[in-house]
């Protein structure tokens, strides 16, 4: 990766050791809560909102967005043995992974009417993925989904987001002891959609959680993948891939809360940007609390800027409150596909648009291989190819 | 028979205090099968000539013509020039992160040949060419030029020369930074391509060392942005013993 950082990008990483005065989870404007009234309306200068263009949230942040019935159509298809239910607000299974951490997530929690609960029974090893398709139909919607994986079960869940909508949602993943859950969330929205969501995973003893976030579409996408550990031995792999085009705002804010001993986390996000006012934001907060001895964590974010006028804000932030850990590290880099690289490829007969595609494909291929699910690899590569065909010209 | 004709070429670069003329009227004709050595002191404009022929956007052509078999090279984009048969082995090859050598070579060969090479013969072709240049097969899976040593980068340039089979090959200081073994292997690679008789070679160098391995038909002394003397291989011997001093005054170089 070239080290030259494009104008207007920031990559200020931080590692703090020894109990900061204000840990990551306290640096927000209000404590986590299910109730939207517990959060002040953001004005844009708050730490968690400073990169987000509030005016493009279409009122999700200030209470003016009201569900109008024509928001999204949710369809769940699941292999035999999996239970899919639509439940009301009072269902006891909702809200167990943790509370909403910002006003938009709390608004979603306060406003949703029906939730989907997908339960994968104990010991079940699914051979087919569960697919939750969320199709935007133009209106405003508040969503809630719970995916519960019983002990020692194994499942792949695909969340497919398409169409146009203004959507705020919470998605909960409850991963039972020894279970393995892979979640792929594809944001393939129309260029007009607004999508803000909190994905919270509560990981059981010796359980594995793998999240793959793929963001291509939308006018504004702001996702908040969070991991908390319920018992020792848990493992989280958080992968992400985004392609931010002209005018798009795509923000991924990760938080891994190591509050339990002997858990692991590995975060790798890669993004390519092109076009005027393409804006990608990546926040990687990892907190290793005093009690989380034996933690092993690494986080990485790489961005590739293809044209002038795009902006990246990449902020890895690792806070370590105990010295008794296996490992902790972070890396962030933003590179440019520069004129010299373009010249070199073109001087070998490769046309400019193909040269750009070659570079982007190569850039993502590494990550796609690392994800390590062959069926998914093919799908992702096909998706990237389609996106490249459509946009890199 | 392919012929590259450079006539009265003037080239400027954008410098801090406005445009600065680097090439001040270059005349040169290179025919398929011929090897021309261009020798000159540092800063005389050799790379500028090479890059200008390949179409690097940094250089502005302010006068003159360049044609390949009568076609206007200066009107072509960088990739069109390459497809027309102009190849530049760069003095400082560029790193391209995320793109593997094998992917790069295949994409490039597909572009130049106009169709994707058949996979089976292609794999053999690449493997054979790499072996002859004494390149570890593991290079195929590495990213283009990323972390390559100076010598590895130059071998990789010559590998491309062998695979792409251009009509005109411009080799910009391919000898610099090579130890004796590497110089010999790289030169042998160039000679294999020359022996086909199908390439016109423009060998740009500062030192006469490489001319022990690659015998030029013509030697041109480059100074102050133009060719100041031309001759046969014996001119290189004169440069070897006398250096460039005589030409630097003659060429009026002040830089
Ligand atoms: N952007 C620029 N601004 C000002 N001068 C430039 C610029 N680029 C190149 N030059 C000048 O052009 C002249 C020719 O450079 P060039 O690289 O072509 O020389 P060269 O003969 O290849 O030298 P070397 O033997 O060191 O490779 C040099 O004096 C160089 O400083
Ligand atoms: Mg040079």
TrEMBL record, chain A:
Residues 136-363 form the SUF system FeS cluster assembly SufBD core domain. It comes from the Bacteria. Residues 1-13 have a biased composition (Polar residues). Residues 1-28 are annotated as: Disordered. Belongs to the iron-sulfur cluster assembly SufBD family. This is Fe-S cluster assembly protein SufD. It comes from Streptomyces hiroshimensis.
From TrEMBL, chain B:
Residues 4-249 form the ABC transporter domain. CDD domains: ABC_FeS_Assembly. InterPro entries: AAA+_ATPase (IPR003593), ABC_transporter-like_ATP-bd (IPR003439), FeS-cluster_ATPase_SufC (IPR010230), P-loop_NTPase (IPR027417). Coiled coil: none annotated. Keywords: ATP-binding, Nucleotide-binding. One of its GO terms (molecular function) is ATP binding. Transmembrane segments: none annotated. Pfam families: ABC_tran. The keyword ATP-binding applies. Belongs to the ABC transporter superfamily. Ycf16 family. This is ABC transporter ATP-binding protein.
């Amino acid at each position: 990766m070239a080290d030259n950082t494009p104008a207007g990008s920031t990559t200020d990483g931080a590692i703090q050791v020894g109990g900061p005065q204000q840990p990551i989870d306290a640096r927000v404007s209000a404590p986590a809560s299910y109730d939207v009234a517990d959060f002040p309306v953001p004005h844009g200068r708050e730490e968690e909102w400073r990169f987000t263009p509030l005016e493009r949230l279409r009122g999700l942040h200030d209470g003016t967005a009201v569900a109008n019935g024509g928001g999204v159509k949710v369809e769940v298809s699941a292999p035999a043995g999996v239970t899919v239910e639509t439940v009301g607000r009072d269902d006891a299974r909702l809200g167990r992974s943790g509370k909403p951490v910002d006003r938009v997530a709390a608004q979603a929690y306060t406003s949703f009417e029906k939730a989907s609960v997908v339960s994968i029974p104990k010991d079940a090893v699914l051979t087919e993925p569960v697919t939750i398709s969320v199709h935007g139909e133009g209106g405003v919607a508040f969503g809630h989904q719970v995916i519960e994986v019983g002990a020692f079960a194994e499942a792949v869940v695909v969340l497919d987001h398409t169409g146009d909508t203004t959507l705020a949602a919470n998605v909960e993943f409850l991963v039972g002891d020894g279970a393995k859950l892979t979640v792929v969330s594809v944001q393939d929205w129309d260029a007009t959609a607004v999508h803000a969501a909190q994905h919270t995973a509560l990981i059981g003893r010796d359980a594995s959680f793998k999240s793959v976030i793929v963001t291509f579409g939308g006018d504004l996408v702001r996702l908040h993948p969070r991991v908390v550990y319920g018992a020792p031995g848990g493992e989280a792999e958080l992968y992400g891939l985004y392609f931010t085009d002209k005018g798009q705002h795509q923000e991924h804010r990760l938080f891994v809360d190591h509050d339990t001993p002997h858990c692991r986390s590995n975060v790798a996000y890669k993004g390519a940007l092109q076009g005027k006012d393409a804006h990608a934001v990546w926040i990687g907060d990892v907190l290793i609390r005093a009690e989380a001895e034996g933690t092993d964590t690494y986080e990485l974010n790489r961005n590739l800027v293809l044209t002038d006028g795009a902006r990246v804000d990449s902020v890895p932030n690792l806070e370590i409150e105990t010295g008794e850990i296996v490992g902790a590290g972070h890396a962030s880099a933003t590179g440019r596909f520069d004129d010299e690289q373009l010249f070199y490829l073109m001087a070998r007969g490769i046309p400019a648009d193909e040269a750009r595609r070659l570079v982007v494909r190569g850039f993502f291929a590494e990550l796609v291989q690392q994800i390590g699910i062959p069926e998914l690899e093919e799908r992702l590569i096909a998706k990237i190819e389609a996106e490249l065909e459509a946009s890199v010209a | 028979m392919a012929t590259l004709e450079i006539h009265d070429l003037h080239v400027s670069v954008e410098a801090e205090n406005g445009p600065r003329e680097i090439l001040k009227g270059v005349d040169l004709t290179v025919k398929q099968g011929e090897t021309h050595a261009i020798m000159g002191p540092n800063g005389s404009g050799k790379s500028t000539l090479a890059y200008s022929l390949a179409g690097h956007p940094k250089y502005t052509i302010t006068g003159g013509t360049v044609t390949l078999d009568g076609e206007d090279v200066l009107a072509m984009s960088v990739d069109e020039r390459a497809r027309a048969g102009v190849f530049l082995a760069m003095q400082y090859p560029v790193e391209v992160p995320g793109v593997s050598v094998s992917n790069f070579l295949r994409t490039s060969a597909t572009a130049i040949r106009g169709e994707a090479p058949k996979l089976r013969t292609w794999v053999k072709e690449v493997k054979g060419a790499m072996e002859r240049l004494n390149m570890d097969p593991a290079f195929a899976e590495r990213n283009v030029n990323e972390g390559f040593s100076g010598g590895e980068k130059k071998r990789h340039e010559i590998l491309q020369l062998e695979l792409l089979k251009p009509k005109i090959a411009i080799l910009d200081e391919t000898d610099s930074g090579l130890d004796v073994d590497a110089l010999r292997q790289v030169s042998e690679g160039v000679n294999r391509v020359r022996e086909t008789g199908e390439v016109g070679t423009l060998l740009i160098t500062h030192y006469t060392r490489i001319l022990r391995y690659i015998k030029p038909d013509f030697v041109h002394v480059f100074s102050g942005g133009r060719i100041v003397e031309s001759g046969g291989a014996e001119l290189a011997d004169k440069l070897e013993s006398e250096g460039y001093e005589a030409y630097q005054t003659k060429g009026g170089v002040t830089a």
